[in-house]
Amino acid sequence: MGGPFWSRKDQHAWSIPKGEFTDDEDALDAAKREFLEEIGSPPPSVDYELLGVFRQPSGKLITAFAAEAREFQPDTIVSNTFPMEWPKGSGAIKEFPEIDDARWFDEATARTKLVKGQLPIVDALVSRLALRDGH
User: Fold this and answer.
1) Cβ–Cβ under 8 Å, residues 54 and 83
2) Which segments of the chain does DSSP mark as H helices, in order?
3) What does each C-alpha distance from 87 to 3, 6, 118 come to in angstroms?
4) Of the candidates 51, 44, 105, which has an alpha carbon nearest to the alpha carbon of residue 71?
């Protein structure tokens, strides 16, 4: 995740691209929009599978999708930015990237990198892949 609060953190400080959507907006359309906004490139033109809806410790719900897209290269991200007063209380507004890095991780590494509230998404993906592969 980007921004000053996450700048020197690595373990349990990564997140999947996500954002809010309204009840009258299709969840997959919102996910694709958020992907474009946060990653800076359109989402791959492939089939997406719903992994589920996951409640975060904050109470927010994340609707997560998975897709297989071998051509996507995370090192090409160009994140959008957001304004924030920094340092807090200084009155100075600075721009920060919403995402400061993107990478592919194996399952074990992903479990140490992702914020803990998103680990059930990894579980759902692992289960879906096991079913697909007949395990």
Assistant:
1) no
2) 27-39, 107-113, 119-132
3) 11, 14, 28
4) 44
pLDDT band at 72 (very low <50, low <70, confident <90, very high): confident
Pairing of strands 61-66, 49-55: antiparallel
Question: 64 pLDDT exceeds 60?
Answer: yes
Q: What is the length of the chain? A: 135
Sorting pLDDT into bands at 50, 70 and 90, what band is 45? very high
Q: pTM for the whole thing? A: 0.82
User: What domains lie within the chain, and their CATH numbers?
Assistant: 4-132 (3.90.79)
Contact 94, 84 (CB under 8 A): yes
Question: Any idea which residue has 């990653």 for tokens?
Answer: 39
For residue 43, say if its preceding peptide bond is cis, omega within 30 degrees of 0. Answer: no
Instruction: Tell whether the torsion through CA atoms of 18, 129, 126 and 53 is positive or negative.
Output: positive
Q: Is 69 helix (H, G, I), strand (E, B) or coil?
A: coil
Of residues 99 and 113, the one with the higher pLDDT is: 113
Q: What is the DSSP letter of 19?
A: -
Chain position carrying tokens 């959008």: 80
